[in-house]
Amino acid sequence: MHPDCQNDPAVRVGARIAGLFEFDYRPGEEISARLMAISCDPAKIDLLINSHFHFDHVGGNGLVPNATMLVQRSEWEAAMERDIAVPHGFNRRDFDLGHKRLLI
Predict the structure, then answer these.
(1) How far is residue 64's CA from residue 87's CA, in Å, rounded to a whole number?
(2) Which of 1, 17, 45, 46 fits as disulfide partner to 59, beta carbons 3.0 to 4.6 Å?
(3) Per-residue model confidence as pLDDT tens digits over 16-63
(4) Per-residue pLDDT tens digits for 86-101
(5) Global pTM?
């Protein structure tokens, strides 16, 4: 998840979605901190695989800045289609961050 979800999830994911989940997410648990804890520099990760684009799967993408993002073409296209993306919980702030993409 995005680190903003540690303090006020509703600001990041919206009140409706924040009300549906319990956020047990503390500083030091973000993907960059977890990688650094095992001596792995997040900036040196080559490949970031996203199964899908819900907030709890892609919120940390920005913390792995230099990776190529691998994702299904159909997932990317659905997330880019405004009529579909918003009701299905896709938020471009979490995954459309300028990573190189490999669509499969």
Answers:
(1) 27
(2) 1
(3) 888 999 999 999 999 999 999 999 999 999 999 999 999 999 999 999
(4) 666 788 899 999 999 9
(5) 0.88
Strands (E), 1-104: 47-49, 68-71, 100-103
Domains of the chain, residue spans: 3-103
Q: CA of 86: how far to CAs of 15, 61, 66, 97, in Å?
A: 14, 19, 27, 17
Under 8 Å between Cβ of 92 and 85: yes
Instruction: Please name the amino acid found at residue 71.
Output: V
